């Protein structure tokens, strides 16, 4: 997959720590609307700091996302980050998936007129924004059963066909491009 890198060797110690953290976390705090179908909460700085001790490139921010049951995000480009580290917490991998464009050539995709659901500070925009039509032949899908690096500078999204929330950690890389991160994370494949 061109824009998703599966991290099969992501540190087990860190994954276990996240599971313990999530078990004790107040899920009602995941309440900041990011789109009509998903919500987020910024996580404490000490959790980001601890996470970064395990990673080859430190994250700029760490959030927890909750995607509503029986919902789909349309293919979009993130405005405020270049790449993401996605770590599953409570994911029905049989009934949900993340997807990303198979190609770098955006002219293969059909643009869609759509507005972002929340405003973005123009000083924090790092990518040209955009929305795209879905086409089975132009997107790779992954069930998020393992952590991944994802190129969010390319059209991507997710579908949650489950009857439960799809909850995962989403680490933000604002300054570093996806290709740089793929090389930096090579020991995690």
Describe what this molecule looks like in 3D:
- This protein has one domain (4-188): Jelly Rolls.
- Helices cover 15% and strands 31% of the residues.
- The chain has helices at 12-24, 45-52, 178-184; strands at 4-6, 32-33, 38-42, 61-67, 71-72, 76-77, 83-90, 96-101, 130-131, 139-142, 148-151, 156-160, 166-173.
- Strands 1-11-7-13-4-3-2 form a seven-stranded antiparallel sheet. The chain has a four-stranded antiparallel sheet with strand order 5-12-8-10, with no helix packed on it.
- A hairpin with a 4-residue loop joins strand 2 and strand 3.
Largest sheet: 7 strands, antiparallel
Strand order of the largest sheet: 1-11-7-13-4-3-2
For this structure, the CATH topology is Jelly Rolls
Would you state the CATH class?
Mainly Beta
Defining traits:
single chain, alpha+beta, Jelly Rolls, four-stranded antiparallel beta sheet, 3 helices, 15% helix
């Amino acid at each position: 997959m061109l824009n998703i890198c599966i991290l099969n060797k992501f540190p087990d110690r860190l994954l276990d720590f996240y599971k313990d953290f999530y078990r004790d976390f107040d899920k009602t705090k995941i309440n900041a609307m990011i789109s009509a179908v998903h919500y987020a909460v910024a996580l404490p700085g000490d959790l980001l700091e601890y996470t970064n001790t395990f990673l080859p490139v430190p994250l700029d921010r760490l959030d927890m996302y909750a995607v509503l049951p029986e919902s789909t995000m349309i293919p979009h480009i993130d405005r405020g980050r270049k790449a993401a580290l996605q770590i599953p917490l409570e994911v029905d991998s049989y009934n949900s998936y993340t997807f990303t464009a198979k190609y770098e050539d955006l002219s293969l995709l059909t643009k869609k007129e759509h507005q972002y659901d929340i405003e973005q500070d123009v000083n924090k925009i790092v990518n040209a924004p955009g929305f795209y039509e879905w086409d089975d032949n132009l997107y790779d899908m992954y069930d998020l059963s393992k952590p991944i690096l994802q190129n969010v500078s390319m059209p991507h999204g997710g579908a949650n066909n489950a009857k439960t929330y799809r909850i995962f950690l989403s680490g933000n890389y604002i300054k570093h491009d996806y290709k740089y991160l793929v090389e930096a994370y090579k020991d995690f494949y």
